[in-house]
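Box S1 | Example of a co-folding query
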Amino acid sequence: MTDQPSRTVATSQSLPLPTPKSSDPARLAADIVDRLTYRIGKDATVATQDDWLTAVILVLRDRVVAKWMESTRETYRREGKRVYYLSLEFLIGRLMRDAMTNLGLVDEMQEALGELGVDLDLIRQLEPDAALGNGGLGRLAACFMESMASVDVPAYGYGIRYQNGMFRQQIQDGWQVELPETWLEHGNPWEFGRRESAYEIGFGGSVAVDDADKCTWTPAETFTAEAFDTPIVGWQGKRVNTLRLWRAEPVDPILLGKFNAGDHIGALRESNKAEALSRVLYPADETEAGQELRLRQEYFFSSASLQDIIRRHLSQFDRITSLPDKAAIQLNDTHPAVGVAELMRLLMDVHGLDFDMAWDITKRTIAYTNHTLLPEALESWPVPLFERLLPRHMQIVYQINARVLKEARATGTFDDAQISAMSLIDEAGGRRVRMGNLAFAGSHSINGVSGLHTELMKQTVFHDLHQLYPLRINNKTNGVTPRRWLMQVNPALYDMAREAAGTDIMSDLDAMQALDTLADDGAAQERFAAIKRANKERLAALTQERIGVSLSPDMMFDIQIKRIHEYKRQLLNIVETVALYDQIRSHPERDWVPRAKLFAGKAAASYHNAKLIIKLIGDVAKVVNSDPATRDLLKVGFLPNYNVSLAEVMVPAADLSEQISTAGMEASGTGNMKFALNGALTIGTLDGANVEMREHIGAENIVIFGLTADEVAQKRANGYDPAEVIAASPELEQALHAIETGVFSPDEPDRYRDLIGGLRSSDWFMVAADFDAYANAQREVDAIWRHPARWQAMAIRNAARMGYFSSDRTIRQYAREIWNVLP
Ligand code: 26Q
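Box S1 (continued) | Returned holo structure for 26Q
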């Protein structure tokens, strides 16, 4: 929403708000035809399904606008504090059903489209999946946006409007192939372009100092950031917030001088360079990708967002010094950490504050969320690169560093090693700017995303900064929005829970507890089982259609879906699958539980082992699925192109959720929560939020196995030898041997030599160390499955006890404990 921008004609706050549009089905139908005719220019008799989809979205968008304006004006009138969520990723997925459910228009829209002869389910599938994120961090930002609107926190999400989001994954001959994702191909009817909200973003150049020590940065290159706004509707349409994404433009789009002088290519060069800034999402997650364009993207969106925040503040309040009282800026990981230096620059060089005043305002305004402890994912930039792109920011980083290290020295309690660990500059092996330390220094709050992860932050990456500033680190355990991850994806289970609770469980997910008392009730179990079965049939149909693997809904659906990464241990899962395959063939007489082992997920394009693991899953699937000996007992499938929409089908169909990361390595996980909420049992390690899920669900209702984070650390410190473990486990040895000798890759017998060799020699991720415990836990799962009443009771209790993991709870904690905004 454009609220009081400086470049628009000032209007009176007292002008009436637009009248809310009718939600009567006949009115909706008439409006849809109107949009089709006058906005899209199509006659209803020749309109394509895509045209109908666009028309429906435009009609829904209209229903959002009045509330949007009301929300914006209300915050303005109250002189309220606003929350700004800065994130390089917003993995929002499809928005149509979100808007429809939150506005309470599902039935009306269904009826309206029925009258027009349009199939809502069909056009819903045509909406592109807005994949502006890699995985958990991006999806969390999307859940948070929805929750902030639902619990009435005035908030803006700021990010980049990537022309190409997360790549589309194709599996060719078993290998992952990356194709560009073109989600904007047919336009984006949700967004409003705001040409008037544009800012200049500079790079390079030089810094001049005047007699009064005032610095002026003159960039060598300048680009324009142009705003695109998407409304985010909260539950029951209570509040509508804004997701503002920036697109890069050349300052002078056609560089007329050059163009007229005949240098068409030179003229276009500038425009290409600008376009590159918002061209593509970096498709790497916890794997390092430290390229210059990435730092440019980080600065581009941080600077545009901060300029916009300050502009909004000064248009309403007269003093810049009140910024911390009226704005809370949350950094989603270190990706916007350069914003600490940019806010300092704006406060000092543009708004004339001295360093001390600017530093105080910066720290009181900014807070930082850490999402990973993996060393390779901790961002740092070479000093020469940083200095060349952002010379003024480099000076400011040094100034901040001097301040922090002076404070550390002043305590008299730190040795040199500790001081250099706190430094914003890593001096070892080529000097680099540590973005984590910059974000920490510039924030009043640093939070982890689960209890365990927060404790580990204190002990590892931020050990010394935590000693210096012991009050800053705090925990905010992640959550997921129940509107999307229960109500929309599993309406039948939602109905069952709502009937049991007799209240609005979408406003208060704790009320799901009502299901608890029904867990042992035969009729409730039957109803639950029927719901699960229907969800499994839907997934089985999709699996058949996409990969030609036929699954019976009588099988246990055992699912692992997430980014492919060694620490997430898809390899442990597939090696255990191979061991199970051997066991079934050796002992066909035993009472085996039929299982479907399903996987989906993307690997970073440059991550060799992750891509090899995908290939291995495919190779194992080929052998297992065509073996008559295990015909109805074991099936393996890898579903291509995992994204939010695929998750929406897989999550409600799962019986078993695989959350098996090496303990201490998964910051939280949020897929684990989505599965349990939909009545899957979890097999998992004591990692991330699994630890807290066990507390809430009860240890008797979750299957936990393996080394703890402490034990992993100890083993690594004491020189763990995987060869010993493997020698002691004949099942593991046999499975590894089969894989490494080409049983599953007869076309290239050595394909997995090195991968398995890594397990035998170093096994950093403790696959061998945890193998026996995992296999035993799987047999425990089998034992539960053989008693359907016991399984259903446990599954129902899982769903019933997930109230804590609503992102509404998480957001209320951020609001009270970090942002100081009271919803
Ligand atoms: C960094 C530098 C250059 C290029 C890319 C990156 C990059 C991009 C994305 C680094 C990390 C990410 C994403 C991290 C992520 O998704 N972390 C997950 O965050 C979730 C939400 O808190 C947690 O639940 C997961 O445990 C955590 O893995």
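Confidence is low (pLDDT under 50) at residues 1-7. The pocket of 26Q is lined by residues 134-137, 140, 282, 284-286, 289, 294, 371-372, 377, 379, 449, 478, 666-670, 688 (CB under 6 Å).
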